[in-house]
Amino acid sequence: MLNKAILMGRLTKDPELRHTQSNIPVASFTLAVDRGYSKNNAEGQQTVDFINIVAWRGTAEFVSKWFRKGQLVAVSGRIQVRNWTDRDNNNRTTCEIVADECFFAESKRDSAPSADAFPYGGNSAPAAAPTMPNMAQFEELLDGDEDLPF
Hints:
single chain
């Protein structure tokens, strides 16, 4: 039997970290995952699925510490269907992904800057990267590469 799910999407809100009665960390979050364009959609808009994700133990702590709303992340795990009873005593079914692994799917500079992205000096971006040094400072080596150790 095989039960494997691999998803990439954006977090709809910051992950929520809780602990079980036996103090095991569990994080839950929702990914907005593009399904693609629908032929039935007259406006040609993309369809988005909102998929609930649950992460346990170390993965839960990692997710709650580093993932934020809007980030593009990848999740690998398994599909789990649970039956439960709500407050009104109605039987409910939930389908979710139990995450085994969670990854950043974009570099930090590609993601939108958040208010805490620049902890020093307010919300302004850091200074521009230094320019290339003046090439006149370097001299060309005329010797061959016979002396190189590789």
